[in-house]
Amino acid sequence: MWQRKQTLFLLAAIILTVICLSTQIASFQAAGLKVARVFCLWYSDPVGNHHFDVWPLFAILLPTAALGIYTIFMYRNRKAQALFCALNALLIVGWYVCLFVVSQMVGDKSWGAVSFQPSWPSVLPAVALIFYLMARRAILADEKLVRSLDRIR
Q: How many helices (H) and strands (E) does the chain have?
């Protein structure tokens, strides 16, 4: 199970997803000053209050990490494993769509003219997306190899 390269790709994607879940992903700035710090579950204003308007980011990324862990342990069912990798990739794309929507709605609603500044952890889901696609490709290659060996018997 752990010696397969797709398992290592999945593990790297899960680690990157968890790092993104637990760090600051962006900030809102007005006139060069930080107005709010954005995490996956909340954003904090300059006073220190937490607002949970950005919870959809967390609600999309947490199941992605859990589904990635489940996918690792489905090594006997390669077709389902490849399907779950594709599902995780779609969830990550949905996360970026949700990040764009949140950046537009929260910034306009709260402070007027502010700029949304993503930080480096907001790139980690994109790298995890690449790892999920690489894992899916390796899983499908294994499935093709098994089918060819079955045909030889």
A: 4, 5
pLDDT tens string 76-126? 898 999 999 999 999 999 999 999 998 888 766 655 677 888 899 999 999
Helices (H), 23-123: 55-72, 78-110
Q: Name 61's Cβ contacts closer than 8 Å, sequence gap at least 6.
A: 17, 20, 21, 40, 91, 92, 95, 125
Tokens of 118: 């993503």
* Ramachandran bin of 116, using left for φ above 0, alpha for ψ from -120 to 50, beta for the remaining angles: beta
Residue 149's alpha-carbon distances to 7, 10, 46, 131, 134, in angstroms, are 22, 25, 62, 27, 23
